[in-house]
């Protein structure tokens, strides 16, 4: 799971850079208009796209300040379509010490069935801070909506940083 | 008590449309909700609901017509529903309606989760197609 330079014919959308809400909204709505899937699948893809990309936007260890002075997380995402399924992948830098918690959270989510996940979502949400709910609940929601496992990888880069990539498969 | 009206913002569909009307006792939130500063957006709405229920004896109706909200927004919606639940227990009359698209089963799950978390009865109302 790396961001490949050059054209990939399976990519519906691919982007690398600061992930502002304006950009995500614009490309998310573009996705809705081009995927031409069933109504409920179209909604699902949009919702998963926003959850995963906003996790990069909020929690990437690399940030950039753009014209209006707002700081946004830097990372990348791809949305691929092959046959009847869609794959959304994101990648971003994380603080190395956050890696283990992220791995544990993803493993816990992947070990649960739908009922247990919904229970975990409610518990996590009611305990979350109002100002910052954290990345965990976005990952739970992604798994619930996609009904598939989180395919993730944490790669150590140096003493301070690791790289986090996550990919989900969304079928009709 | 002042009303809150937030109209549709062109090029910023991540802000919902809001119409909180004190004379009618009706709060309506529609559209999509995935703005960056969720707490800043929802705080005045939560304060408005608290103030209405504290100062007025008339019933309040909350109409949710959201077609999408991110998990950050859902945390603040939960707060609003918690305020409502607490006030109902204290004898206030509040009705919560959630307008949904029958072709969107994920939204029905969301409403069920809110009901389970708050212990509140939320009326599911099928959204009329334009």
Structure description:
The complex is a heterodimer of chains A (172) and B (130). With 172 residues, chain A is an alpha+beta fold. Chain A has one domain (11-171): Heat Shock Protein 90, CATH 3.30.565. Helices cover 43% and strands 30% of the residues of chain A. Chain A contains 5 helices and 6 strands; from the N terminus they run E-H-H-E-E-E-H-H-H-E-E. Chain A has helices spanning 21-35, 39-59, 99-110, 114-127, 135-146, and strands spanning 11-18, 63-65, 71-82, 85-95, 151-156, 161-171. In chain A, strands 1, 2, 3, 4, 5 and 6 form a 6-stranded antiparallel sheet that branches. Chain B is of the alpha/beta class. Chain B has a single domain, classed as STAS domain (Transcription Regulator spoIIAA), CATH 3.30.750.24. Chain B is 39% helix and 28% strand. Chain B is built from 3 helices and 6 strands. A 6-stranded mixed sheet of chain B has the order 1-2-3-4-5-6, covered by helices on one side. In chain B, helix 1 packs parallel to helix 2 (71-89). Chain B is globular, with a radius of gyration of 14 Å. Chain A binds chain B through residues 21-22, 24-25, 29, 39-40, 43-44, 46-47, 50-51, 54, 57, 70, 118, 121-122, 125-126, 128, 130-131, 133, 137-138, 141, 144-145, and chain B through 11-14, 34-36, 39, 67-68, 70-72, 74-76, 78-79, 103-106, 109, 113, 116-117.
Provide a short characterization of the protein structure.
The complex is a heterodimer of chains A (172) and B (130). Helices cover 43% and strands 30% of the residues of chain A.
Topology:
The complex is a heterodimer of chains A (172) and B (130).
Chain A: E1 11-18, H1 21-35, H2 39-59, E2 63-65, E3 71-82, E4 85-95, H3 99-110, H4 114-127, H5 135-146, E5 151-156, E6 161-171
Antiparallel strand pairs in A: 1-3, 2-3, 3-4, 4-6, 5-6
Helix pairs in contact in A: 1-2, 2-5, 3-5, 4-5
Chain B: E1 4-6, E2 17-21, E3 26-33, H1 38-55, E4 60-69, H2 71-89, E5 94-100, H3 105-118, E6 123-126
Helix pairs in contact in B: 1-2
């Amino acid at each position: 799971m790396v961001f490949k330079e050059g054209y990939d014919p399976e990519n519906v959308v691919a982007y690398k850079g600061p992930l502002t809400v304006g950009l995500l909204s614009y490309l998310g709505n573009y996705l809705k208009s081009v995927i031409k899937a069933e109504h409920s699948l179209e909604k699902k893809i949009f919702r998963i796209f926003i959850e995963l990309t906003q996790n990069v936007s909020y929690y990437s260890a690399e940030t950039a300040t753009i014209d209006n002075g707002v700081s946004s997380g830097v990372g990348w995402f791809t949305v691929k379509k092959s046959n009847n399924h869609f794959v959304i992948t994101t990648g971003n830098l994380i603080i190395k010490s956050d890696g283990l918690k992220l791995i544990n959270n993803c493993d816990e989510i992947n070990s649960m069935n739908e009922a247990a996940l919904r229970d975990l979502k409610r518990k996590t949400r009611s305990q979350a801070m109002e100002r910052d709910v954290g990345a965990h609940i976005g990952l739970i929601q992604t798994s619930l909506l996609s009904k598939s496992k989180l395919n993730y990888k944490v790669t150590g880069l140096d003493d301070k940083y690791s790289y986090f990539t996550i990919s989900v498969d969304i079928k009709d | 008590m002042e009303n809150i009206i937030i109209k549709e913002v062109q090029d910023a569909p991540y802000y919902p449309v809001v119409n909180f009307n004190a004379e009618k006792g009706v709060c309506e939130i529609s559209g999509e909700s995935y703005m960056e500063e969720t707490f800043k957006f929802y705080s005045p709405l939560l304060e408005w609901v608290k103030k209405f229920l504290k100062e007025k004896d008339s019933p309040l109706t909350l109409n949710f017509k959201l077609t999408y909200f991110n998990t950050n927004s859902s945390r603040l919606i939960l707060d609003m529903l918690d305020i409502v639940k607490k006030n109902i227990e204290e004898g206030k009359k509040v009705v919560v309606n959630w307008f949904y698209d029958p072709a969107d089963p994920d939204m029905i799950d969301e409403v069920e989760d809110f009901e389970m978390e708050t212990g509140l009865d939320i009326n599911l109302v099928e959204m009329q197609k334009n």
